[in-house]
Design goal:
This protein is of the alpha/beta class and about 425 residues long. It has helices at about 40-45, 60-65, 85-90, 90-105, 115-120, 125-135, 155-170, 195-205, 220-225, 235-250, 260-275, 285-305, 315-325, 340-350, 365-375, 385-390, 405-420, and strands at about 15, 50-55, 70, 70-75, 75-80, 110-115, 140-145, 180-190, 210-215, 230-235, 255, 305-310, 330-335, 355-360, 375-380, 395. It folds into three domains: about 10-25 and about 295-430, Rossmann fold; about 40-150, Rossmann fold; about 180-285, 3-Layer(aba) Sandwich (Rossmann fold). The protein is about 45% helix and about 15% strand. Strand 12, helix 13 (about 315-325) and strand 13 form a beta-alpha-beta unit.
Length: about 425
């Protein structure tokens, strides 16, 4: 199928059928991108550390914006910068806010201070203020340098968050030998119980999860994360930097794995068993695969030959594309708001030639893709949901909102939900919509 999508000439290199799209570049001025800012990327990674106090050093709107992450609300404080603070400085206001936050939340194990565009523009020495507050209060006060303008997307916020974790949290638990058969899961956010499914599978291998960054991270858990025997990178953009640095600093080996889809889950568990020299512990995998296929078989019959488009976090593209193909579906295009070259290379290896890969698509282009390819399903973030519905295309929110998709049980949940969405009678009423099977 020849690509004939109406787009800006400057965007052509961001879409490829054979090679890899241009990526990790600033959005073209005037184009309304689907991306978020660097602050939000840092919050996406750190918000779930529940025993820390989170303080946004910026206008109250930035705090409101970053309060909700993955459709969950997390408590966040703000210095609520205003015009006077921008003119005269807000260092004293930040110091007072840290003191007040610790007074209100005395059980907080640490304070995380996020910088915003406003704080960055006026040149606040946030690091010095945090250092002084830590000395005065006796609680770790950690600056995260993440003003929205300091990167091209929320992906750069992941990098800022990873740097803060490495410099101020990970390995602060003192010396200690590696714990036998223990892992850290890097880049897992425990969406709708995914982590519980993964932990159950690892327990069958006799493997303990030491720390999860950051779906179930705590300050104490991060402090002893350097004692893990293996790092599992479940999301490349949030976990790869941590894994590389921890390998250099602490000698922890790492593997990039995925627990989405039958083949990916089985491959991940076999890899872990091999690293810990216990391949005999993984002899039950084929039985689990067959059981999952049997449970999913009524849905697989209805999904065979259906078309799907994917547009979500780049590190999930390759593994989820493979999972959808295991459902019997054809992936007609695959893209992300802020993928890096490694993410697109992994996706290309899973999808082969001729599948369209697209980086940083905006709404007009996504509409073109839906009109051109007429997928039976679009899977993506909530920003694209209502556009798809208006065009008569069923939509699957990912990260998901209903049940875990990870592991063998998660594959069955995915098959059930996709079949239900595509088969809903309402799509017969949508003009031009692909008829449900």
């Amino acid at each position: 199928m020849e690509l004939s999508v109406d787009m800006l000439p400057e965007r052509r290199q961001h879409m490829q059928r054979v090679g890899l799209p241009a990526c990790n570049r600033p959005t073209i001025p005037g184009v309304v991108s689907q991306r978020a800012c660097v602050l939000y990327g840092a919050r996406w990674m750190l918000a779930t550390i529940k025993d820390a106090l989170h303080l946004i050093h910026g206008p109250v709107g930035c705090a409101y914006y970053s309060e909700t992450v993955r459709k969950k609300r997390y408590e966040v404080f703000s210095t609520a910068l205003d015009e006077k603070d921008i003119i005269f400085g807000a260092g004293a206001k930040l110091a007072a806010a840290i003191r007040e936050g610790v007074r209100l939340r005395p059980a907080a194990a640490a304070v995380i201070v996020y910088t915003t565009c406003a704080a960055g523009l006026i040149g606040e020495d946030v690091t010095a203020i945090c250092r002084q507050a830590e000395a005065n209060l006796g609680v770790p006060v950690v600056p995260v340098n993440c003003p929205g303008f300091c990167g091209v997307s929320q992906g750069d916020g992941h990098e800022a968050a990873a740097l803060a974790l490495l410099e101020h949290f990970i390995g602060r638990g003192g010396e200690g030998s590696p714990l036998a058969k223990s892992v850290n899961i890097l880049g897992e956010y425990d969406i709708q119980g995914d982590l519980k499914e993964i932990e159950g599978l690892l327990q069958r291998l006799g493997v303990e999860v030491l720390c999860t960054v950051s779906g179930r991270a705590t300050v104490a858990g991060l402090a002893r994360a350097h004692r893990a025997g293996l790092n599992l990178v479940h999301c490349g953009r949030t976990g790869r930097r941590l894994a590389l640095e921890m390998a250099e600093r602490f000698g922890i080996p790492w593997r990039k794995v995925s627990f989405f889809g039958l083949a990916e889950t089985a491959a991940a568990l076999r890899t872990i068993a091999d690293v810990f020299h216990c391949p005999e512990k993984a002899t039950w995998l084929e039985e689990e695969i067959e059981s999952a296929r049997e449970k999913a078989s009524p849905y697989l019959e209805r999904l065979a030959g259906k078309r799907v488009g994917l547009f979500f976090g780049a590190s999930r593209m390759g593994s989820m594309a493979r999972a959808f193909r295991e459902l019997g579906m054809e992936v007609v295009f695959c893209g992300s708001q802020f993928g890096c070259r490694e993410d697109y290379a992994e996706s290309r290896s899973r999808l082969g030639r001729e599948t369209l890969l697209v980086d940083d698509a905006h709404e007009r282009e996504l509409e073109e893709f839906l009109h051109r390819y007429r997928p039976h399903l679009l899977a993506g973030g909530s920003r694209e949901q209502f556009m798809a519905h208006k065009l008569g295309v069923p939509f699957l929110v990912f990260p998901q909102e209903t049940a875990p998709y990870a592991g063998f049980n998660g594959f069955v949940n995915l098959a059930r939900e996709v079949a239900t969405l595509i088969g809903a009678p309402v799509w017969r009423l949508a003009a031009g919509s692909p008829a449900p099977g």
